[in-house]
Amino acid sequence: MERIVFYILALIIIIFAFASVTSRKMLRSVIYLLFVLSGIAGVYFLIDYNFLAAIQLTIYAGGIIVLIIFSVLLVHHIEMRLEIAKTSRKITTGIACLLGLGVFLFTIYSYRFNVVENSLTTNVDEIGIKLLSYEAGGFILPFEVISVLLLAAMIGAIIIAKGNKLSENNNQTK
Amino acid sequence: MILLSITENIHNWLFSIMPEGVASIVEMVLIAVVYLTIFAVAGLFLVLLERRVAAWFQLRIGPNRVGFQGLLQTMADAIKLLTKELTGTERADKFLYNLAPYFVIISALMALAVIPFTKEFHAFDINIGIFFLIAISSIGVIGILLGGWSSNNKFALIGAMRSGVQTISYELSVGLSLLTMVVITGTLQLSEIIEFQKNGWLIVQGHIPAIIAFMVFMISGTAETNRAPFDMVEAESELGAGFHTEYSGMKFAYFFLAEFINMFIIAAIATTMFFGGWLSPFGITESIPWLGVFWFLAKTMGLVFLMMWFRWTFPRLRVDQLLTLEWKYLLPINLVNMVVMALIVWLNLTIRF
Fold first, then answer.
1. N or C: which end of chain A has fewer CB within 10 A?
2. % of residues, chain A, pLDDT over 70
3. Within 10 Å of residue B174's Cβ, how many Cβ atoms?
4. Of the partner residues A28, A50, A78, the one whose CB lies closest to the CB of residue B127
């Protein structure tokens, strides 16, 4: 049963990943990308990583895709098509993709995976405790670094959005 | 007990006559059919309720001819919509145009699946329940954005853009106000949250911050379902019908039904998180568990009525007022409220019976 569901999900992910890069209509390829990301969330649900699956749905499907759709709505007209890339560029991209695929396959096949007999689902409080623990195996440092990064991004967004107004106010006070 | 024995009997009967794999698939299909029926019936009933409530507020009678007190009116409307021609605009993106209503419906159905109607009538009791609801609610807007863009119509496009802005902003408040309550319960699983409320509903346990969180949740929930006074998405006087201007027949009905189901879902989440879900007040019917459905629906309908009351009382906001309300008032209030709630839980100031 789980095997069948996994193969269906894998098929969905692969088909829509191809469709996403070959479609010439921009919004359609965004939607195909959404299907790919939801399929990955489905794989997480299948292996009982509920929290990760919900994160995948919130951040990628709900956040990133909505933002991409938003920017497509702003810049793209419904009758426009994406242009076909040059042959030389196609070849370079193909080689780069094959190289990446080779690295992935080599790592996956050279690593010996442990088979877990009874998979236990991770609780949210375990994740929270791990995230804030400063003992061995804790994630307090990356957590703090990410919060600083987010703060910097927020301030940057405000400065970009208000750019002119801020400097005008400063000049007036001088 | 009746519901429990029905579901258990069906479960046992299915597994006795079929091999295990087939039986579980049949069971899943049955559950899906039950939820689709709930979706359709609840949606149609809510449409009727809205019309009757609107009529009451405006001193009219409202639909009362088809069936007893107009109970079959919306059913007749649905059948009429089924027979209508499905039109579309020229040079619209047909694939996305047809796909958009299903996004809205599927996200509504997925949210419906995790809502606990009673202890037994709970399709998907996942250990991150409330977080799953927040995650799902962020997907529904994609359907609206797609529908607005792919119908190749300026009004629809503007409606969809407004909807996107509104939903992305108000999602934050919905999530944070629910997280404020999670601070008390310490769990995200909906069944455990309800068990926790046997010592008093959360709105009583968390007193002042809980009431503030409830108010913020109802405001932002109304905004997230795109209902008046926040219906910038389909402001009739400005945009025709907003993102579903070009939709007709059953596809329009999908959007329409999903809007009402979303309202039901927001009310149901509020019931679960603040008013004890299927628990009876003061435990008066604790010995009769199947009455849980009654209590759950009674509380939910009360909150749905509250949302309808909003709709027919307040005038529509402007877009800038809408965003000011969220970013300058609700979000800071929410953040402070969460700290206050954490303090109250830390100092053990919650009220428990």
1. C
2. 93
3. 25
4. A50
Contact A57 B131 (CB under 8 A): no
Looking at the whole model, is its pTM more than 0.90? no
d(CA B123, CA A163): 51
Q: d(Cα B17, Cα B9) in Å, to the nearest integer?
A: 12
Q: Is A66 in contact with B145 (Cβ distance < 8 A)?
A: yes
What ipTM was estimated for this complex?
0.82
Separation CA A115–CA A109 (nearest Å):
15
| Listed residue (B334, B340, B347, B342) closest to B184, CA to CA | B342
Sequence spans of domains, chain A: 123-174
Give the distance from residue A139's alpha carbon to the nearest chain B alpha carbon, in angstroms.
21
Residue B34 Cα, gap to closest chain A Cα (Å):
22
What is residue B314's DSSP assignment? Answer: S
CA distance readout (Å), A50 to A5, A126, B115, B206 = 16, 13, 17, 28
Query: pLDDT per residue over A41-88, tens digit each?
Result: 999 888 888 888 888 888 888 888 888 888 888 887 777 777 787 889
Which of B89, B98, B132, B331 to mutate to probe the A interface, most A CBs <10 Å?
B132
Tens digits of per-residue pLDDT, B92-116? 778 888 888 888 888 888 888 888 8
**Residue B168 Cα, gap to closest chain A Cα (Å):** 8
Closest CA to B182 of B211, B206, B159: B206
Q: Show the low-confidence residues of chain B (pLDDT under 70).
A: 1-7
Task: Compute chain B's Rg from CA coordinates.
Answer: 21
